Amino acid sequence: MRALPRRVVVPVALLGAAATLVVAGVPWAHGTVPTVLSSDEITVDGTSAAPAVPALALVGLAAAAALAIGRRWAVVLASVVLLVAGASVAALSLGVVLQPEPAVLEAAGRVSGVRRLDGPAGATAAPFLAALLGVLVALAGLAGLVGRRDWGRTGRRFERTADPASGTGAPGREAAAPGPGAAVSERDRAMDDWDALGRGEDPSDPAGRR
Q1: How many Cβ atoms are within 10 Å of 101's Cβ, its own excluded?
Q2: CB neighbours of 2 closer than 8 A, spacing ≥ 6?
Q3: Where do Low complexity bias regions lie (predicted)?
């Protein structure tokens, strides 16, 4: 799997988790409940059909935020959380798609006092969408695990390099002072020039300098 940059993975995880939280608030299943005089149509939203889904979406939001600002170890942990949370959302949502009746029966008991339906229960498109969003969040977690080695560490401090134009450099580095060897060399040269003058030679003449 090709590593994706953090600036792509994090928004995908955030949007996927936030959208899951929104979708959990709409009807997921429906059915007809018999009453004393007639039958009533009832609907069940995601928070009742799969109560763990909104909580997993909040966990996904927190993990996506940690993925955005975390260092390498935090990226690994956040990616694992996203992977598990997304897979769990997908599994729970598909469970409602395949078997919507238990959630509707629970709601029927609250409405009429009897856990009974007139006809089969059905699922709306919302759990399908939630399952897809869960897969998206899980893929974002997988992308975080794959790309963690290529992502730079957030908050890393870089040292300033030397600026030739301004003459500034890295802290602690100063221009090297002339060593004692250079001072001795200049002193020997002055003594040689003095000796040349004593011999009647011109020390400024290259031919007469030793």
Answers
A1: 16
A2: 146
A3: 167-183
Contact 23, 46 (CB under 8 A): yes
Residue 52, token pair as written in the block: 């763990």
Beta strand segments in the chain, E: 27-34, 39-45, 122-123
What residue type is assigned to position 102 of the chain?
P
Q: pLDDT over 90 for what percent of the chain?
A: 40
Rounded to whole angstroms, the Cα distance separating 134 from 141 reads: 11
pTM across the whole model: 0.67
Residues 6+ apart with CB under 8 A from 170: 159, 160, 161, 162
High-pLDDT (> 70) share of the chain, %: 70
How many residues comprise the chain? 210
Q: Which two tokens stand for residue 53?
A: 């889904």
The type of residue at 19 is A
Q: What is the dihedral of CA 182, 187, 193, 195, to 10 degrees?
A: -140
Contacts of 116 (CB under 8 A, 6+ apart): 33, 34, 105, 108
DSSP 8-class letter at 208: G
Confidence of residue 62 (pLDDT cuts 50, 70, 90): very high
Whether domain 6-147 has CATH 2.30.30: no
Question: Contact at 8 Å (CB) between 159 and 170?
Answer: yes
